[in-house]
Design a protein that fits this description.
With 164 residues, the protein is an all-alpha fold. The chain has helices spanning 2-58, 63-97, 116-163. The protein has one domain (2-163).
């Protein structure tokens, strides 16, 4: 009887040992899998950043281009503003000569608005600035992402490394 109990005890001990080995193998696999996923996501983000940098190099969005476009816009605005007093006066004279009150709402003041060539130039410059701004924002967004996420990722990888 004692032998039977001893054999049953040994078998249950072996089963428990096998379970521990199996559990530790599963844990190692999970840790390795987790580490691989983290490394893969880091590689993907690095590739995205590299693509953004290469795109920026291909289409330079340096300060010189930005400043040039900004100066063109300021020049256009200054030119428009320099003509506004005469445009306003012409519109006011037009309203007064028609016998309406200068304060009448919904009065069409054609002379006050931008001329078509000014509006077209303004739109073109605005689109150029928007393209510069978008690529800068994309690059800044990637830099901010790395600044925020990298310490956490390295900490996670270190914890995974310590567990294994």
């Amino acid at each position: 009887m004692a032998e039977v109990v001893q054999k049953v005890g040994e078998k249950s001990l072996n089963i428990q040992q096998d379970k521990k080995v199996l559990t530790s193998q599963k844990n190692e696999q999970a840790i390795t899998h987790g580490q691989q996923k983290v490394e893969l996501s880091i590689k993907e983000e690095i590739i995205k950043l590299r693509e953004a940098v290469q795109e920026t190099i291909k289409n330079p969005t340096n300060n010189e281009e930005f400043n040039k476009t900004s100066k063109e816009i300021l020049g256009l605005i200054n030119n428009i503003n320099s003509h506004q007093p005469s445009r306003l006066q012409a519109a006011r004279n037009k309203i007064l000569s028609s016998g309406e009150s200068p304060n009448t709402k919904n009065t069409e003041i054609e002379g006050f608005f931008l001329e078509q060539h000014e509006w077209d130039k303004f739109q073109e410059l605005r689109e150029r600035l928007q393209k510069i701004k978008e690529s800068r924002e994309k690059l800044d967004e990637m830099k901010n992402f790395y600044t925020l996420i990298m310490p956490g990722i390295f900490q996670m990888v270190y914890k995974i490394y310590l567990r294994s």
